[in-house]
Amino acid sequence: MNCKILFLFISLAINYTTIAQGVTCSAKDKEIFISRIANLKKEYTPKSTFGETIVAVGKTFLGTPYVAKTLEIGPKESLVVNLQGLDCTTYVENILALSLMLKNNKDDFDTYTAYLEKIRYRDGKLDGYTSRLHYFSEWITNNEKKNIIKNVTGDMGGIEHQKQINFMSTHRALYPFLKDDQNYKGIQQSEINIDQSTICYLPQDQIAQHEASIESGDIIALTTSIKGLDITHTGIATREKDGHIHLLHASSRGQVEVSKLPLVEYLKKIKNNTGIIINRPL
Fold this sequence. Notes:
The protein is an alpha+beta fold. The chain has helices at 27-43, 50-59, 88-103, 109-120, 136-145, 167-170, 181-196, 207-210, 263-268, and strands at residues 17-20, 23-25, 79-81, 149-151, 159-160, 200-203, 219-224, 231-239, 245-250, 256-258, 273-281. It has 9 helices and 11 strands. Strands 4, 5, 6, 7, 8, 9, 10 and 11 form an 8-stranded antiparallel β-sheet that branches. The chain is globular, with a radius of gyration of 18 Å. The two termini are 22 Å apart.
């Protein structure tokens, strides 16, 4: 779930249009996609590892504005395409979708939206507001089920994350779509399902000793001590010239950037951070 609840936001004026059944996208975003995928294909090296591809694609978004609530468009849930402004989750989703396109030698918009839907929604199918993977811990377990990523935290000595998740249902007023009782009940059921599953995290004080095992391109999720919440932020691991893992992410500071501090030091400055979950794209 996500950074969008916890930070101050900037906004973009975007004229959205429904361009296909269930897909909401501005003409500008469609143009950006066409241009971006063409440029990425020119630069793509098939011999690169998938992690290297993810980092390379991710860095082409450096400087893109951080914008929250980009998916809360219109009266009902649709597959929103927004490449002009990204929050931490939509940044990761778009990078993953574009990287999969390069890996599979695809360049058409329909394939892109199909990948985006598969990544963003429970079991890969958009079926209303509650089908979106709002909580990032469920995003992880469901995308692992779809063989898109593998949670490798347990292999690094991670421990079970034991916590009741209910932030959305206990903060109903923050979410306009939860005014609808059916959506509210659906989110409550999602929270019950999350509580019945298990997921490992690597405590903050153990990350340094396992840093060498984190690979560029891994998707990093930041766990929190905030009541009812699982994850506050996410980004992509990148090993920089100093030899350390840094975080490539859509930062609430205002844009997509690489953290100036290595991940270990960066996390120490984040209030309520308890550790991370490491997910390796397949």
